Structures are given as structure tokens and as C-alpha cells.
């Protein structure tokens, strides 16, 4: 696996070291890889949210009233057994 060098402040290095010493990670590299994976997941969720927002905006303005929407939500929750 190729390596990468990064510069960190003493405070950041100490924090990473404390996470490893605390038993959360086996080594510094594992911690950094976990951060990168979490960031990748966050970006994936942001992209999905943006797509949902774009689709919602493109669908136009609803002609349903708030009580109509609330009624539909309650019916859907009852049908799922969640209400």
C-alpha cells in the first residue's frame, strides 16, 4: 500500500496518539483511514440529499394543504405499523 506524508500540529498528533492509546484504533494509520472513510460516507450522503432536494424543487409547488399532508403521513405511518 502506498504511503502518504502529512504535517500535523503537536496538538493534533497528540490527539491521534490518545485515540490509539485509548484502544479505539490499533495505530495512527487506522485512525486516518477511518476518518477518510467517514468523510467519503458523509459526501455520499450529501450528494444523495442534494439530489433529493433538486428533485423536490423540480417537482414544483404542491397544491395540497398542510392538513392534507399531515393526514397522508398519518395514514402511511398507520399502514407501516409505526403509529
From TrEMBL:
Record flagged with keyword Calcium = no
Q: Which GO terms describe its biological process?
A: regulation of DNA-templated transcription
Provide the alphabetized UniProt keywords.
Answer: Toxin-antitoxin system
Q: Which PANTHER family match?
A: ANTITOXIN PARD (PTHR36582:SF2)
| Similarity comment: family membership | Belongs to the ParD antitoxin family.
What is this protein identified as?
Answer: Addiction module antitoxin
